[in-house]
Design brief:
about 0% strand, flat, Type II secretion system F family protein, membrane
Length: about 325
């Protein structure tokens, strides 16, 4: 078959796939009957428990699962069986503050893997059309592209967790000082927490908002902070939550505990900054030694070399 026929077949297949995706997305984005009727049927508990009346999420993962259905779920289950570590993934999702399940992440990994597979397949097709077909290497490249996409999505989740933890460490001293000032002014721990959450923003403030919501729903203050300490992935935040819980239980001065926690975090940040500067100093020497210094030596000795050649008999 000629390249023109191959191009026509690929274009028709792509157009058909895009048409199917657009048609399915239009159906998904239409308001469900449950969304229109369920607010008027809240007094019927059997309707609220029905799985058919759950609102459909508008996330890309749900849309992809609705379009491709069992095949995508089977691929996600296969990735889960091969990789495992559902507990670790669930904990990282909680630490990244992502409203997703482990299955949703596996579906995203499959989609990223299919993206890498598609790029590798396109490269193989272009290489074959250029006149150098290599089936074995193209298949191996497609497999590597799929595995690379799956692993890259997992690494992206880890990077999201680290970025959120860095933001929390940046916000922590200020929030702790605000809590200390509110408690020192005579407010109770719950009132101080409410005041700080209402007047601050960020990831740490959202975590404190969840603690405040747990306290308002009847959980003891110490138990709510203990749960936060258990689910947090940062030792500094865990020590802070445990210190607040112990101070509330035993009646120790909470303002002093908060000031000490903020001072500890600032000192830890200062030490990390000094260590990072020391590592960057060594890294900065690499381009100086291997790039700038050879060029400087070359410019210094090249005129002498040229002069020797000109004056030689």
């Amino acid at each position: 078959m000629s390249p023109a026929v191959w191009g026509a077949v690929l274009g028709a297949t792509t157009a058909l796939g895009l048409l199917l995706v657009v048609s399915r997305l239009r159906v998904i984005h239409k308001p469900q009957l449950s969304v229109r009727v369920l607010p008027y049927l809240r007094d019927l508990p059997q309707v609220g428990r029905s799985t058919a009346l759950r609102p459909v999420s508008s996330s890309p993962v749900t849309a992809a699962a609705g379009i491709f259905g069992p095949a995508l779920r089977w691929a996600a289950d296969t990735v889960e069986r091969v990789l495992g570590g559902a507990a670790s993934v669930r904990r990282r999702l909680e630490r990244a503050d992502l409203d997703r399940t482990v299955h949703d992440l596996r579906v995203e990994q499959v989609l990223w893997g299919l993206g890498g597979f598609t790029l590798a397949a396109v490269y193989g097709v272009l290489k074959a059309l250029a006149g150098s077909p290599a089936v074995a290497s193209s298949v191996l490249l497609c497999v590597v592209g799929f595995v690379g996409g799956v692993v890259l999505r997992d690494q992206w989740l880890t990077s999201l967790v680290r970025a959120r933890e860095r933001r929390i460490l940046t916000e922590f001293p200020t929030v702790a000082e605000l809590l200390a000032l509110a408690v020192a002014a005579g407010e109770s721990p719950v009132a101080a927490l409410d005041r700080v959450v209402a007047r601050s923003g960020g990831d740490l403030s959202r975590d404190l908002g969840r603690v405040l919501a747990a306290v308002r729903t009847g959980a003891p203050v110490a138990a709510a902070f203990d749960h936060w300490a258990a689910t947090s992935g940062l030792p500094v935040v865990a020590r802070f939550a445990s210190g607040v819980a112990v101070a509330v239980e035993r009646g120790t001065p909470l303002a002093d505990v908060l000031h000490a926690q903020a001072a500890d975090v600032r000192e830890a940040g200062r030490r990390d900054l000094i260590e990072s500067a020391a590592r960057r100093e060594v890294a900065m020497m690499l381009p100086v030694v291997f790039l700038v210094l050879p060029v400087t030596v070359f410019f210094a000795f090249w005129p002498g070399v040229v002069g020797l050649h000109l004056t030689a008999p």
